[in-house]
Write a structure and sequence with these properties.
This protein has 21 helices and 19 strands. With about 650 residues, it is α/β, with parallel strands linked by helices. Strands 12, 13, 14, 15, 16, 17, 18 and 19 form an eight-stranded mixed β-sheet that branches. InterPro entries: Cyclic-di-GMP_PDE-like, EAL_dom, EAL_sf, GGDEF_dom, HAMP_dom, LapD_MoxY_N, LapD_MoxY_peri_C, Nucleotide_cyclase.
């Protein structure tokens, strides 16, 4: 029960007690008054009758009876009696009349005390008798009953008036006092503090003043909490270094874009593109340079990209930082041609923002892009991009890798876990095989056979080439096992075939000692075949991990095997390292060879590389030859072994 109801109930009970007490006291006072009046009436009448009977003329018994009867017949007395001195009744008039209109319960509840009054009758000094009178109380009962009814009506009326007043009071308190307090309390939770309010009821002035002070304190506290919440939201959704959205925010926005694109009743944005790029050398940069400088450099690079997006009028792009080295660019509603232009411009910006790392080369970026459309899911799209980044890292250049629909058919759609299961299963059950292709000279002579490791995930499916599964193997730290399996299969091939065999080895395999130890064991077991085995490495390794390449060259030379270098044109810094290693051949290729027919400088640079290699006894091959004109130039420079769509073999083998 509320305090207000308790207060009203207690006041009502108190008033009820007061009214009932007043009623009881009033009735009792009236009863006592009427009882006294009856007694006075009886006494006065007894004195008067006794005086009348004491007159000598009234000593006659007939006259006495007439006087008694006359007094009795007046109806004011219920008993008139005359007795002699000895107490013998001489004359008596008596009735039992009572007030018929007065309830018996009321007579029992408030009895009237109508006592008998007596007086002596004398004749001179001689007493001749005694009169006794009892007043008739019927009229007194009726008067008391009527008076009580009026008092009861007055009390009930007062109670009803109090009830009405209490009801109105409760309504007034609720509608005036409580509503005013409620309005002031509601104002406390508003965003902006309202003006100081004055109490409309004087009794509430203290309460309203306290509420005003509380409102001010609450508003100050709310502003402080809002500032903290905003700061926490920034920390949760924003990268502290670049100010870009973080991975959580980007993924949520990407999913929202996918849902918005497929929502019914809305204008659907039919797909778009997502581009991710990774700073491959961020760990080395942090080791060689101050952290503050690297943070400033990353901010400047991101600001440059945002300026480019604004200049190209790209609609609703979102640039985010996924983690320390990975960034993402969401291009909703962006068609493929425009997306390619954005990707190429971003590649140019990243290329221009490169800074030196260590000694000898600039930092590198890896980029991958894919599209999404109606019905796409965020998980598979991001997994496809992750796979594209692995391919870009393995390629060793800054070209944008397009992760298209063909990549969705590989285990990359299930992410790294699927790759890990597939590669580990293949290693356990020896589900690898070699795909071989002969390397031909221009006269059709087979120089040697080149092999690529293939992963077979199921008997009824096409095997996956190393260019697809080696990047995830690098991320999963399984690349050394894959390369060792490639060497084992190569030795098996040499045991059953004539000629030489070249096998590619990934640079990440050389980071640990496991690969070199296991390679030495394999070559020890098949030492007789080692002199026909060629291990081919990427030219970037001559600059980035020269010590590991030197250790590999030592193991290879110890068993009579050979070492080759591919993609020398993409890392000309490796030319200075050619004399430090016992190499058998180097390969030129890529855009360097493709643009040779239009670039005399490329021809001169190739001539310099050829001269250096020949002085060191290293053969030079060419790859990615686009046309007959480039083939003619290469022949003129003295290169007789080449491969590409523009190569024409004079005498097929």
């Amino acid at each position: 029960m509320s305090i207000l109801r308790q207060l009203l109930l207690s006041v009502t009970l108190a008033i009820s007690v007061i009214l009932l007490g007043t009623l009881a006291l009033s009735i009792n006072s009236a009863r006592e008054y009427l009882s006294g009046q009856l007694q006075v009436q009886s006494t006065d009448a007894a004195v008067s009758l006794a005086l009348s009977l004491s007159q000598p003329a009234n000593n006659d018994p007939v006259v006495q009876e007439l006087l008694v009867s006359a007094l009795y017949d007046g109806g004011h007395f219920s008993l008139v009696r005359l007795t002699d001195p000895d107490g013998k009744v001489l004359i008596e008039r008596k009735s039992a009349a009572a007030a018929a209109s007065v309830p018996a319960w009321f007579q029992a509840l408030a009895p009237l005390d109508a006592q008998a009054a007596t007086h002596a009758v004398s004749d001179g000094w001689r007493q001749i008798g005694e009169v006794t009178l009892v007043a008739n109380d019927a009229y007194a009962w009726e008067a008391l009953w009527r008076s009580s009814l009026k008092m009861i009506a007055l009390v009930v009326g007062a109670g009803i008036l109090w009830a009405v007043f209490a009801f109105v009071l409760v309504g007034w308190i609720k509608n005036r006092l409580l509503r005013e307090i409620s309005e002031h309390v509601r104002d406390i939770g508003r965003d902006s503090p309202s003006e100081q309010v004055e109490a409309r009821v004087p009794e509430l002035s203290g309460v309203v003043q306290a509420l005003n002070q509380t409102r001010e304190r609450v508003h100050a506290s709310v502003e402080e909490q809002n500032a903290k919440i905003e700061s926490l939201e920034l920390e949760l959704n924003q990268d502290p270094v670049t100010g870009l959205p973080n991975r959580k925010y980007f993924v949520n926005e990407f999913r929202r874009a996918l849902e918005a694109g497929s929502a019914a009743g809305k204008r659907r944005i039919d797909g778009g593109h997502v581009l991710v790029f990774r700073q491959r050398d961020l760990a080395d940069l942090n080791r060689h340079m101050p952290r503050e400088f690297i943070d400033q450099w990353l901010r400047a690079a991101c600001e440059r990209i945002q300026g480019t997006l604004k200049r190209m009028h790209v609609a609703s792009p979102m640039l985010a930082r996924l983690n320390g080295s990975d960034f993402a660019l969401l291009l909703p509603g962006c068609a493929a041609p425009q997306a390619m232009m954005v990707a190429e411009q971003l590649r140019a910006d990243l290329h221009a923002s490169r800074i030196p790392v260590g000694e000898g080369h600039l930092c590198r970026w890896a980029q991958a892009m894919t599209d999404y459309g109606h019905g796409s899911q965020a998980g598979p799209v991001l997994a496809r991009l992750d796979f594209g980044l692995m391919r870009a890292e393995s390629a060793g250049n800054d070209q944008v890798v397009i992760a298209g629909a063909t990549d969705m058919q590989s285990p990359s759609e299930s992410g790294e876990r699927a790759w890990k299961d597939a590669i580990q299963t293949a290693l356990e059950h020896r589900n690898f095989e070699l795909s071989t292709e002969p390397l031909l000279a221009l006269d059709g002579r087979v120089v040697r056979t080149e092999a690529m490791l293939m992963l077979r995930t199921a008997p009824n499916q096409e095997p996956i080439p190393a260019t697809l599964f080696i990047p995830p193997a690098v991320r999963l730290d399984l690349v050394a096992d894959c390369d060792l399996e490639s060497v084992r299969l190569g030795l098996d091939w040499l045991a059953s075939h004539e000629g030489e065999l070249a096998i590619r080895v990934a640079l990440p395999s050389l980071r640990g000692q496991k690969f070199l130890r296991q390679l030495a064991l394999l070559l020890t077991e098949r030492r007789s075949l080692a002199n026909r085995l060629f291990l081919e490495i990427d030219a970037h390794g001559l600059v980035e991990c020269h010590e590991q390449i030197t250790a590999l060259a030592h193991v290879v030379s110890e068993f009579g095997a050979h070492l080759g270098v591919r993609r020398l044109a993409q890392q000309f810094g490796a030319v200075a390292q050619l004399h430090t290693l016992p190499l058998s051949y180097v390969k030129l290729g890529g855009g360097f060879v493709g643009g040779m027919s239009q670039s005399p400088g490329s021809q001169q640079l190739t001539a310099s590389v050829l001269e250096t290699a020949r002085n060191l006894g290293i053969a030079v091959y060419a790859e990615d030859v686009p046309d007959a004109e480039t083939q003619r130039i290469l022949i003129g420079l003295g290169i007789g072994i080449m491969r590409g769509q523009g190569v024409r073999i004079t005498n097929g083998a």
